[in-house]
User: What shape does this take?
Amino acid sequence: MSKEAKGILDRLESKEADVFLRGAAADVIFECARCGQCCLGGAYTIVDDQDINRIAEGMGLAPENISETFTIPGPDNSPGTRMIKNTGPNNSCTFYDAENKGCTIHESRPAICRTLPMMNVRQGFRLTLYNHCLGASNLINALRAESENLGANRYHERLKSKKKVLKRLKIKLLIHILQRQGAKERSEAVARISGIKLPLDMDNLRKECLAYLLLSIDSKELDGYKYDGIKI
Assistant: This one.
């Protein structure tokens, strides 16, 4: 293993990194149910110049047009940071299509939207933070079903017994985080240094992430989860 790869591994072993690795693992499993909950209400989407450039490219417009038409100054008026406008009776994101329940700029959406809801984690990570989200509810149900079949889960046993497998998974989760944030070059650099082949095998990664979360989460978190959103 190279010095650079070892350095990456050392950083991934910290408690702070563990919080985000759990979030990344949940994000791998998470599938958006298009309920629109994260696009509605009083929350605002913070964007930077990179986000605005990505949206502009996706819409075929100039960045200054995107900034002027679809954003407002950020909360602290700092240069290079804006907020996407909220509109309509539900105060929804200006890019949200309520009729079709979807984002109109999904392929070029901002970084914060690429990492919600599962990777918007904080110290003391708990899946119950997202009980308004139908996709999160489906993820919890998948974890519950998997927890009843741990004896037959070879991924679970491999992660428990082989440290190298767990370490490699953590690096793959870091690559996933970087990809979700749009940091293509950095993700490719980590993969190259660590000897991990891209693109990631997502089917296999999902199975590993289910096992990883079940190793990391207190079963009470699963038992105490209650979905409070609207079924669609």
In short: The chain is about 50% helix and 10% strand. Strands lie at 46-48, 71-73, 81-84, 86-87, 92-93, 96-97, 102-103.
